[in-house]
Automatic annotation (TrEMBL):
It comes from marine metagenome. Residues 6-163 form the Glycosyltransferase 2-like domain. This is Glycosyltransferase 2-like domain-containing protein. It holds the Pfam family Glycos_transf_2. InterPro entries: Glyco_trans_2-like, Glycosyltransferase_2, Nucleotide-diphossugar_trans. Signal peptide: none annotated.
Length: 216
């Protein structure tokens, strides 16, 4: 059983090392844990930092192509490398990498096709009241569209089985996390949400340029 943790990155030299350091390399029930970096046209030392911290695979674009393209490139590469489970996380170290073990458990127990980490956004101190409200509202709207109950639709910390990854059909920028939830509901995948931990805020998110993008 091979697990590949993919990390799409854009100028993450300051946080990528810490992100990688927390990812467990030995997990019961998993034979191999590999880290795949997708460097989406970074202009800093992101790729060098990835190598210095033991990345197993690096895909690097000469120019920025967008999060959706980077996410899909990661999936395509992980599948080609024989991944049985693919976990996606962010290079900004917002998620605690040790919870990789928590994410894979429902898949190892054959209870889930897709596992989504629940940040419990209402408890995150550095989230403004507006951001908490938007996250809650957006999750309710997208969950309703997919016929599911997912508390944190925007979470990028999630695990996919190989079979599920092969079926993913949507990789647009910014909102692919929501689209995958809608597809999961339409295609009747088994989706499980598990509580995860977050790290203190390191910088402003690069993912959303305005407050409406997540809800849309």
């Amino acid at each position: 059983m091979k697990l590949i943790v993919q990390i799409p990155c854009l100028n993450e030299e300051e946080t990528l090392g810490a992100t990688m350091a927390d990812i467990p390399r030995q997990i019961e029930g998993i034979d191999a844990v590999e880290i795949l970096i997708i460097d989406d046209g970074s202009t800093d030392r992101t790729s060098e930092v990835a190598r210095e911290n033991g990345a197993d695979h690096i895909v690097r674009f000469a120019q920025n192509r967008g999060l959706g393209h980077a996410f899909k490139a990661g999936f395509d590469t992980a599948l080609r490398l024989g991944a049985d489970i693919i976990i996606n996380t962010d290079g900004d170290n917002q998620y605690f990498g040790g919870d990789v073990e928590t994410l894979v458990q429902p898949i190892l127990e054959q209870r889930a096709d897709l596992v989504i980490g629940d940040r419990r956004t209402g408890e995150i101190g550095h989230f403004s009241l507006l951001k908490r409200a938007l996250q809650t509202y957006g999750s309710r709207v997208i969950s309703r569209l997919g016929g599911l109950q997912i508390p944190d639709v925007a979470s990028g910390f999630r695990a996919y089985t190989r079979e599920t990854a092969l079926k993913i059909s949507m990789f647009t920028d910014f909102d692919h996390t929501a689209e995958h939830v809608v597809q999961a509901g339409q295609d009747h995948w088994a989706v499980v949400a598990v509580p995860i931990r977050t790290n203190p805020k390191a910088r402003e998110s690069r993912l959303f340029s305005n407050v409406g993008e997540f809800v849309l």
